[in-house]
Amino acid sequence: MKKTYLLIIGLLISGMLFGQQLNINSLYNLNKYEINPAVAGSEEGLPLAFSYRKSWVGIKGSPSMQMLSGHMEIVDRMGIGVRMFNSTQGPLRRTGMEATYAYHIPFSGSDSRLSFGLSGFIYQYYLNKQELNVEDPGDLALQGAEHKVVPDAAFGVYYYGPNYFAGLSVYQLFQGRIRFDANDIADNQRIRHYFLNLGYNFEISQDFELESSVLFKYLESSVFQADINIYGTFKKMVSLGLSYRSGNAMVIQLGYKNESINIGYAYDLSLSDIKTVNSGSHEIMFIYRFSNFLIKPIIEEE
Asked: Could you tell me which of 63, 108, 71, 60 has the C-alpha nearest to residue 89?
């Protein structure tokens, strides 16, 4: 019984060994800092973003995630960012924080920049063993809860201009292990995730813009996935998008924005076998853009 319980834990942590250990939101195109630390400080002002995602609605204990992030340029060429997140999947919960530093290099004679970003992470894994459905709830090995803290890091490169971007990032650099109770069974190693994100914004007319982008995701466990995205915006205010995630889902996006706020909603329609037992995934994101009055003007005056 104890080995069965530990095997269940191991499968939850490793994402069934073949899945992604990092949850990627469908609305990452609205907040690219989520998938690349080098984005920190690449935008005007301070975009403070909150997102909530509920995956596979209709399945008990299905994953959910909340995230709060912000980044800004503090002085010329230097950006910082902070992200906090909380995700749950059945009895397993993961919380954490990311702190980022990025350096931006402008190219003379153009509006293009190349940035490099490095993030440090602290993850806390929390397992509520009492929520496991087991044959012997009175087993002492299944009482209470367990906490594990794991540090990690990420690195990214980002090339961008007014209408285009290209970014490459790698997460879980340390490939730390998460051990619950017994190392011989629940000894699960985090694996590196690589993200390549490319996009271009076409100005179709004075009132309509169309952004096309792709995101390639590769895991060192030989898992590969690609997102193909089309996102249209009317009068720089109302948006409609469509994405295809290879072998996984179709995503419909709706959005509204003005100078200060950006609101997005995404609905994922599953294409894999899991579509028979759930009604899709829902995600919302709210971004409020502050001006850079907190740090940058004070430093410049000195």
From this structure: 63
